[in-house]
Amino acid sequence: MRVSLIVTTYNWPDALSLVLSSVAHQELLPDEVVIADDGSDKNTKKIVNNFVHNFNIPVIHSWQEDSGFRAAKSRNKAIAKASGDYIILIDGDVILHPKFVLDHVKNAQVGFFIQGSRVLLSKKKTNKVLTSNQINFSFFESGIGNRKNLLHSNFFSYIFQKKKNSMKGIKTCNMSFYKNDCCKVNGFNEDFIGWGREDSEYVVRLMNAGVARKNIHFNLIQYHLFHNENTRKSLGHNDAILKDSVVSNSIYCKKGIHQYI
């Protein structure tokens, strides 16, 4: 099974550099990394180019023009360019535990998508991490929220995994699925413009198509860098699209990934 790691980013090159450094230190490397860039400037391109020349695996920079928050379109383009059978989605503001990719691969299961959680770093801790280029963390460090999510245990992960379909807690910063399942529902819905709900709506259509949700704890560990929240001004419009997909039991969106394949 070929694995493609998709990293979404927008104009935070210092964070992306740390994320990619944590990718380079994975016990199991993905077969490729695809940067889903929603219109970053040349500073991000420099970071990507540096890793293109220094990684032992292919790094693809999937860039689109900056025209506001268009994460759905950016992800679709990146996934379309990916050669992997299995897709792992993360954001460009999460540092990965060394076993992160390995954990996603070993938990992969036909007929399911995987949802993981994250460890939250405080603003002060994030500033320190960015200054020191820290990518490894211990349980007893200060500046860490959701501390229980830092514990790595295969035994507890097996005991506490849950297979339950719902939209609660959906986060594409720590998600994986088979590319064929993504294409079956036409990927992310590009009618979503601005922050919010595009990940939940995608998952609704996956579940309507028979792809069930599997929640994993004590594996798939990632450390989320603090940043200010995105504007919520598009939530009214996006909530309406989500509600329509739920009510109509939608499986396939009209404007999705197939236009790039």
Report on the structure:
With 261 residues, the protein is an alpha/beta fold. It has one domain (3-260): Spore Coat Polysaccharide Biosynthesis Protein SpsA, Chain A (Alpha-Beta Complex), CATH 3.90.550.10. It is built from nine helices and eleven strands. The strands form two sheets. A seven-stranded mixed beta sheet has the order 3-2-1-4-9-6-10, with helices on both faces. A four-stranded mixed beta sheet has the order 5-11-7-8. Helix 2 (42-54) links the parallel strand 2 and strand 3 (59-63). It is globular, with a radius of gyration of 17 Å.
Number of strands: 11
Distance between the termini: 20 Å
Name of the level-1 CATH class: Alpha Beta
The profile of the biggest β sheet is: 7 strands, mixed
Oligomer: single chain
Q: Quick one: overall form?
A: globular
In spatial order, strands of the major sheet run 3-2-1-4-9-6-10
* CATH topology-level fold name: Spore Coat Polysaccharide Biosynthesis Protein SpsA, Chain A
Structural class: alpha/beta
Mean pLDDT metric? 95
Low-confidence stretches: none
The percentage of residues in β strands lies in 15-25%
Q: What is the CATH architecture annotation?
A: Alpha-Beta Complex
- Write the H/E string, N to C: EHEHEHEEHEEHEHEHHEEH
Given the structure, what is the number of helices?
A: 9
Radius of gyration: 17 Å
Fourth CATH level, the homologous superfamily: Spore Coat Polysaccharide Biosynthesis Protein SpsA, Chain A
The share of residues in helices is 25-40%
Number of domains: 1
